[in-house]
């Protein structure tokens, strides 16, 4: 088991670290290739829509055939194949369709890795998830910090070299992992339907969705906001790196403690912290200060993901674990990203980035109010004190 967990840490490190190349620098690469802002927005904007379909579908296939390892290997090979059309042509429709295929293969990997981690840990050690996931944050921080100078050195047009290296490394690591904790229970669409009809789970997903709309807007628009404030490529990489490294202590120290508290109460606190974060982004006009404020990622997204993942694990049976994690990811990052990216991009173009962040703060405030109202109603129904712990 120790070997399994060691390679899961490495898998998390390089998978999330690899995203530090695509997320901040792919829009800049496409701009270098001569694409307009509208074309870049169209290409990048399709990602969350693809995720909504790809993540639950691939998650269900993984549960159905009771393997995560083999599915992940196939997905990484598909990502490499699709990247040829993304990196080596300047034709819009070729790049657009290649990115659709690219993201269809890449987006299910994160929830599948989370599912493999939870299954490897088992219910008794589930609280140790954060100590594995923190390696992903470390990977993102380190690679985001290094990729900027490396891309300046080799040229942004050679971005595919870094991405292929990490993709092949992921495939190599997967050969050392095993599919563990697989349930013998049959998997069918009826079982998936039962999960979707769980009112508590669906309500929780909707509350998470409200929080993730402005978060995903920031994921899409932060680079452009920092550029408008005069940030260099090095400072942009540092901003992403600081955000990732701030998650590490949260994942390490708070995972077990957070599991002992009422998930709705903690979710409301997280939404309130997000409100403060986005409102500060909406009034500060210094790229350096915005970069420093990226350390708030730990107490916002880091806490959010612990609560969301652990709560989903409670609601979803083991034999549908990958499907449940995929549903969570598709709602938060897929649907949340589709709405956040589209509306946020429109506000950015029409009213500017400061107004965009101010509206993001108001959205997070609305989410905070909704969560605490639902928390109070739920607490009264269960005849529990408002700050009581879950049974």
Automatic annotation (TrEMBL):
<feature type="transmembrane region" description="Helical">
    <location>
        <begin position="12"/>
        <end position="32"/>
    </location>
</feature>
<feature type="domain" description="Major facilitator superfamily (MFS) profile">
    <location>
        <begin position="1"/>
        <end position="378"/>
    </location>
</feature>
<feature type="transmembrane region" description="Helical">
    <location>
        <begin position="261"/>
        <end position="280"/>
    </location>
</feature>
<feature type="transmembrane region" description="Helical">
    <location>
        <begin position="354"/>
        <end position="375"/>
    </location>
</feature>
<dbReference type="InterPro" id="IPR051717">
    <property type="entry name" value="MFS_MFSD6"/>
</dbReference>
<dbReference type="InterPro" id="IPR036259">
    <property type="entry name" value="MFS_trans_sf"/>
</dbReference>
<keyword id="KW-1133">Transmembrane helix</keyword>
<keyword id="KW-0472">Membrane</keyword>
<feature type="transmembrane region" description="Helical">
    <location>
        <begin position="134"/>
        <end position="153"/>
    </location>
</feature>
<dbReference type="InterPro" id="IPR020846">
    <property type="entry name" value="MFS_dom"/>
</dbReference>
<keyword id="KW-0812">Transmembrane</keyword>
<feature type="transmembrane region" description="Helical">
    <location>
        <begin position="159"/>
        <end position="177"/>
    </location>
</feature>
<keyword id="KW-0813">Transport</keyword>
<dbReference type="InterPro" id="IPR026032">
    <property type="entry name" value="HcaT-like"/>
</dbReference>
<feature type="transmembrane region" description="Helical">
    <location>
        <begin position="198"/>
        <end position="217"/>
    </location>
</feature>
<feature type="transmembrane region" description="Helical">
    <location>
        <begin position="327"/>
        <end position="348"/>
    </location>
</feature>
<feature type="transmembrane region" description="Helical">
    <location>
        <begin position="71"/>
        <end position="88"/>
    </location>
</feature>
<feature type="transmembrane region" description="Helical">
    <location>
        <begin position="229"/>
        <end position="254"/>
    </location>
</feature>
<feature type="transmembrane region" description="Helical">
    <location>
        <begin position="286"/>
        <end position="307"/>
    </location>
</feature>
<dbReference type="Pfam" id="PF12832">
    <property type="entry name" value="MFS_1_like"/>
</dbReference>
<protein>
    <submittedName>
        <fullName>PPP family 3-phenylpropionic acid transporter</fullName>
    </submittedName>
</protein>
<feature type="transmembrane region" description="Helical">
    <location>
        <begin position="94"/>
        <end position="113"/>
    </location>
</feature>
<comment type="similarity">
    <text>Belongs to the major facilitator superfamily. MFSD6 family.</text>
</comment>
<feature type="transmembrane region" description="Helical">
    <location>
        <begin position="38"/>
        <end position="59"/>
    </location>
</feature>
<dbReference type="InterPro" id="IPR024989">
    <property type="entry name" value="MFS_assoc_dom"/>
</dbReference>
